[in-house]
Amino acid sequence: MGKKITFTRASLIHVLCWGLILAFPLFLFRQDDTMTDMLRHYLRSLGGTLSYMIIFYLNYCYFVPKLLFENKRKSFVIYNLLAIFLLVVTMTYWWHLMGEIFPNSNPRPQVFNAPPRWTRFVQMSFMLILVIGLSVAIRMSQRWHKLQEAKNEAERIRSDAELKNLRNQLNPHFLLNTLNNIYALIAFDPEKAQVAVGELSKLLRHALYDNQKHFVPLYKEVEFIENYISLMKMRVTNHVKISTNIDIDEDDATPIAPLIFISLIENAFKHGVSQAGEGEISITITNKDDQIMCEIINTNHPKRDNDKSGSGIGLEQVAKRLELMYHDHYTWEKGLDTTTNKYFSKIVLHNTKSVERGT
């Protein structure tokens, strides 16, 4: 069986362009031209058109990809000069032959004196050089487009690999911090610790399964955050003021990167409670006008020497994941208010629906 021939968009463009060029001389005939005159004029123009096609596809299919792109510039120039010389000679012979076969029975008036023959050689050579330049420009444009596509694909693969690596790091980091919190509960309230283990199983289900997706519905992420806050409340005393303002619909399916806020909330519980068991933590999450906002404010207490909850990689992971998944679609304001000794962190995710579509 023969090979199946398929026409791409580029092939169709080639056919249409050359079809128009081949048909153009048909519109230049005079009404008083005989059939012999029309045939003579068309065949003469056809010789020039075929020469342009030959030089174009010699460069398009061979000279440019095999010589120019392989840094064989000297060979590229020599072969093109040789092709131009042969085509100019061939066209000159072709025009002379058509004049002999089809004598002109209806000569057109000469307004100007005929230019010297050598100027015709220069004109033909110049036109062939222009066609070569067109072929080179098209080939280089296609090459740049392919290189750009390959670069974008390599960047996408790199980003996916880096994001997967961050997710794989996040699960152990989150688990370590949570287990340390449960460990602290065991010392003074074993019953709460047992309840906390049950709550942890719910959290791990989200962290282990939903975290493998690029995006999850917002209501699932909010449910996870609320469960985590409930777990953390078991550890702190009544002297810690915890306020939450989560203004999200129960069925809000706006896509969001999983666990994107959890490290900030972990830090709030880590640094927002003093050794005396006092502190203040405020967590606000809203979704308005296609903007998801998470603002966390907590009292600032330095990490205790005996506090083994985490190794400080949480915020670094947040920054990397935001850049990978919400590049140019997020703002992050954070810092310490020295007048109130409170640390604040505010992340706003912009145009979240278009981010999921990759636009």
Could you please describe the fold and organization of this structure?
Helix 3 (73-101) packs across helix 4 (117-188) and helix 4 (117-188) runs antiparallel to helix 5. Residues 1-6 have low confidence and may be disordered. The chain is built from nine helices and seven strands, in the order αααααβαββαββαββα. The longest helix has 72 residues, at 117-188. The protein has 359 residues and is of the alpha+beta class. Strands 2-4-5-7-6 form a five-stranded mixed beta sheet, with helices on one face. A two-stranded antiparallel ribbon has the order 1-3.
Q: What's the shape? A: rod-shaped
Neighbour order of strands in the largest sheet: 2-4-5-7-6
Low-confidence stretches: 1-6
Whole-Å distance between the termini? Answer: 44 Å
Largest sheet: 5 strands, mixed
**Total count of strands:** 7
Mean pLDDT: 76
Helix content range of the residues, please? 55-70%
SSE-based structural type: alpha+beta
Rg (C-alpha, Å): 37 Å
Question: Proportion of β residues?
Answer: 5-15%
Written as H for each helix and E for each strand, in order along the chain, the element string is HHHHHEHEEHEEHEEH
Q: Given the structure, what is the number of helices?
A: 9
